[in-house]
Design brief:
eight-stranded mixed beta sheet; three-stranded antiparallel beta sheet; 13 strands; 36% helix; globular
Length: 276
């Protein structure tokens, strides 16, 4: 397949709707389809990588960088990333501490750019790019300044950090999932607590990644996968062939992805105009 180019989405090979075939993954990650977890399980099982470096939410919006080596550790770390962790700063140390030779990295678009440049244009002082085999970027509208946002949740809604079980983005709101129920916060209200850098970021899907992954509301229970090069395309196709994921054509949901991408670009342009 020849690469296709779309200015807001970058270059890509294919667009798919994917879902894990493992029942345990589906049970834990039914909202998103679990395709990223299944892809990474395949990469670990077939020894394509010896570890997956990702972030794990500890409480509220706080997180830390971890290395997952099997399905249980992947499931424990899987979920939406809503806060920036010292991920880029820690990956070199993690690779050396764990003696990793080939890793997959799950990250946000801003981090994907850093890792992609390290891999494709290595710098001697930070020579770990040759150990990064796969870069998977999650769709991202922005991450929160978690201390300020948690204080706002506590003061306005009475929500404590330890109560938060999951955070999901819907069309009109940010959903805070707790054992007692779901609190839906209007996006306009929530976005005022985004990291400052996110307000001028224009990358929604992760243009420097091998695979971009996210969801659209019109296809609940499925993961949108955008393969950006032969490396990403091969991983997705091989995982399908080995029975780790099921695939459907996802080209018809590109409109939904583009809508979000345009919204992020428009927000960045408005904020840049205020800066200058």
């Amino acid at each position: 397949m020849m690469p296709v180019s779309e200015s807001l989405l970058g270059q890509f090979y294919g667009v798919y709707l994917a879902r894990a075939k493992d029942e345990e993954i589906l049970k834990r990650k039914v909202a998103s389809g679990g395709a990223v977890t299944a892809l990474l399980c395949y990469a670990l099982d077939k020894e394509l990588v010896d570890g997956v470096v990702t972030s794990k939410r500890v409480k509220g919006f706080e997180g830390r960088a971890i290395v997952a080596r099997n399905k249980d550790e992947l499931l424990d770390a899987a979920g939406n990333s809503w806060s920036i962790v010292p991920f880029a700063a820690r990956i070199k140390a993690k690779i050396e501490e764990e003696d990793l030779k080939e890793v997959a990295v799950v990250c946000l678009p801003c981090q994907a750019q850093f890792f992609g440049q390290m891999r494709d244009f290595p710098i001697l002082e930070t020579d770990f790019g040759n150990r990064i085999k796969y870069i998977i970027s999650l769709f991202c509208m922005g991450t929160f300044a978690f201390e300020a946002f948690l204080n706002y949740l506590r003061v306005k809604y009475g929500v404590r950090a330890e109560e938060i079980e999951d955070i999901r983005l819907s069309r009109e709101s940010l959903e805070i999932h707790r054992e007692t129920g779901v609190l839906a916060i209007p996006l306009k209200e929530a976005y005022s607590y985004l990291q400052t850098g996110c307000l001028v970021c224009t990358d929604y899907t992760g243009l420097w990644s091998d695979i971009s992954a996210g969801f659209v509301e019109s296809e609940p229970g499925w993961t949108v996968l955008i393969t950006r090069n032969a490396r990403g395309e091969e991983l997705v196709r091989r995982a399908e062939k080995e029975g780790y994921i099921e695939l459907r054509d996802g080209s018809y949901v590109l409109g939904d992805v583009l809508k979000r991408a345009r919204e992020k670009v428009a927000r960045a342009q408005r904020n840049m105009a205020h800066l200058f």
